[in-house]
Amino acid sequence: MPTSNEPGRSSTSRVFAILNACRRSPAPMTLTEISRRSGIPVATAHRLSRELIAEGALERNDDGSLQIGIGLWELGSAAPRQRGLRRAARPVMQSLAGHTRTVVHLAVAGHHEAVCVDKVAGPRAVANVAEVAGSLPLHATGVGKVILAYSDDPDLCAVLQCTSLRRYTARTIAGPGRLAAELAGVRDARVGYSWGELTVGTASVAAPVFDAEGRFVAALGVLAPEAEQVDRLAPEVRRAADAISRRLPANA
């Protein structure tokens, strides 16, 4: 039963609205920004944020801004499915990062975004926004396109119904028709690309990971400067994704 003074909204719903607002933001947010994005009144957001900070679910920076706390990540990391996926993928990711000298990351489907669950940086890693436990846009990243191409989740499929997708750079695919055509190519080639579509000068290539029963579970991606032509890395990324798939049991 709802216990909120906002009709039809429970305390649990408000807590998750605050956490999701912070999780989806690429940078720490002020309380006012959290209130606006979550739809929670400032006074209520302030009270709940204090409780979340005390539990480690949120962290307060020196300037007063808030971000997701390590306590929440530790809680999510305890999920058996994600723990098994990371355990199977980590040695393969380390090998791939060492050989390609790039950033390698593993992402799974979130609500309307890709969620990075692990990352390994090679010796020539580029700066990127793929932080562990952070979210990435589905339509502007290699891992996101792979997730869209292979997932049958209705929430994710709704992305293709958007009449105008957010542009992060001049090269971001903003039209659903063009995105749908690209996803068909992802399924045919078993690889997805992003060419400066999220951040200028950075490209990515990603491939799907499946469990022992052939169900799609994650996307493995590599990020590198556009000048390095990441398409040359596609065969190696596919082989690495296949290696992770072979290490996964059913229901991974």
Describe this protein's structure.
- It is a single chain.
- The chain has 252 residues and is α+β, with helices and mostly antiparallel strands.
- It has 2 domains: 11-75, Orthogonal Bundle (Arc Repressor Mutant, subunit A), CATH 1.10.10.10; 79-246, Beta-Lactamase (2-Layer Sandwich).
- The protein is built from 9 helices and 8 strands.
- The protein has helices spanning 11-23, 31-38, 42-54, 70-77, 80-100, 142-150, 154-157, 176-189, 234-247, and strands at 58-60, 66-68, 103-109, 114-121, 135-136, 192-195, 202-210, 216-225.
- Strand 3 (103-109) and strand 4 (114-121) form a beta hairpin.
- Helix 1 packs across helix 2 (31-38) and helix 2 (31-38) crosses helix 3 (42-54).
- The chain is globular, with a radius of gyration of 19 Å.
- Mean pLDDT is 85; it is low at 1-5.
- Keywords: DNA-binding, Transcription, Transcription regulation.
What are the defining features of this structure?
252 residues; alpha+beta; Arc Repressor Mutant, subunit A; Beta-Lactamase; 2 domains; six-stranded antiparallel beta sheet; two-stranded antiparallel sheet; 9 helices; globular; disordered N terminus
Task: Provide a short characterization of the protein structure.
The chain has 252 residues and is α+β, with helices and mostly antiparallel strands.
